[in-house]
Structures are given as structure tokens and as C-alpha cells.
Amino acid sequence: MAYRFLSAYWKNLICANYLCDPTWLQTKLPEGLLPDLWNGRCYLSLVGFLFDETRVLGIPVPGHTSFEEINLRAYVLRPTQDGYRRGVIFIREIVPRPLIATVANTFYQEHYVTRRMKHNYMQTAQGFEVSYSVFDQNWHHLNIETNGILSELEEGQEAHFILEHYWGYGGKPGKEATEYEVRHPSWKIAELQSYAMQLDFEQLYGGEYAFLNRRDPVSVFFTPGSAVEVFSGNKLRNSFDPVL
User: Fold this and answer.
1) Quick check: 187 and 162 in contact, CB under 8 A?
2) pLDDT at residue 238, rounded to an integer
3) In the sheet where 138-152 sits, what is the strand order?
4) Using CA atoms, how far apart are residues 123 and 120, in angstroms rounded to an integer?
5) Dihedral, CA atoms, 241, 71, 110, 225, nearest 10 degrees?
6) Residue 165 and residue 192: Cα distance in Å, rounded?
7) Where is 162: in which H helix or E strand?
8) C-beta neighbour count of 182 within 10 angstroms
9) What are residue 5's DSSP bridge partners?
10) Which residues contact 64 (CB under 8 A, 6 or more apart)?
11) Mean pLDDT, rounded, for 126-135
């Protein structure tokens, strides 16, 4: 039976969304997972946010309760007897603490790496500015400015497709997957005034992702986030139930 492994607040999420080829994405997925499409479009998202008040098995680990993360993720479907389960799989997650990477890679078959990171939250005359930075050969930056006016997600919106996911998957391409549940309330999104990205996908994620350097994001969202709970993972061991 799954148990709550981690609790935290995910704060000030920046989500920059890119289009990719679903046939190409399929080659990156563990066995039994399929690319999830929105209006025929296949997405990769670059997400920067702050982990805060983090507890593992209910216990705060000194020096590891507040830290940045920048990840590159894709959207997937898993067939079950009740239909398709929609989820997220991470290409790579970057954090500043080695222990975090070790725990996530061990228990969830994730792809965490450790780099120097920093973030900034600043009030402006129009609202506020949020930025995340990671050092890999040089500094890479992701930042937005927003007036902070929030709106509810609506079914059928692109933002609803991107943000409303409650299952995560880990694992290597073509191998068994690990599935875990993530719980949080539905998030609201804020109006953006501007965004800026100064980063090299090839440096951060490898040559297969260099094509993203030649593309602009099709959308960028900001959400204040919320408290989250991440539950223990379950290795699927190729036991994917067919859709009835």
C-alpha cells in the first residue's frame, strides 16, 4: 500500500512549454507509456520552482527543507482497466543538494543531477518578478514578470492540460516504469507581463535536446503553487492492464 513519502510546498512555478515530435518522445519512455497529446500537440515543459518546508516521512532534514528545482518533463498516458491514466515523466531534474538527487533516483527511478542554483523573488511596481538560475559551464536563467492577477483553470485549456497531473513516472527508455501519486489542489495561473529565457538545452540536457534552442516556447505559465504530497512509488514490472 502506498504511503506518503514526502510533503512540501511547491512555490512560484514557471512553466515554459515547447512542442516536440510524439514519435521521437516515444523512444524516451519506459515500457507501457504513451505520449499524451493536447489537440494533437506533443509537449515538453521546462519548469522552475521552489521546494519549501520539505519533509521526508514527516521529518524535516536539516539543510534540505528549502531548495530550487528546474526540470524538463513530458506528458504521458498509462493504460489501465479503467481507461488511460494521465501523468508526467521527467527527462531530467536539477537540484542543488546531492542527497535529494540520490533519494529520488533510488526510490523513484528519476533522473536527478546536482548543480549550483539560485532563485529570486522581487516585488515590482506592476506586481512581482520570479527567476531561477542553474550553473552548468555557465549560468542559465529563467524568469517572468507578472501582475499577480490569478484565474481558475478551465477544462479544455492548454494550461489545464499542462498543470493538472496527479501521477508521476520514472524509469529508463524501454524498461519497467515506477508509478507514484502526487496530490495537490487545483492550481490557479497568473497573467504574465513578460518572460525571458537565457539557457542552453544542449548543455543542460544533452545533444538530443539541442533542437529546443532553435524554438520559442508556445506558451509560458506562472502559478503560485501549493502544498503537495508525494506518495511511495510502485514498480509496474511490465504489468500494464489493457484498456477495456
Assistant:
1) no
2) 57
3) 116-123, 128-136, 138-152, 188-198
4) 10
5) -70
6) 22
7) helix 158-163
8) 16
9) none
10) 54, 97, 99, 100
11) 95
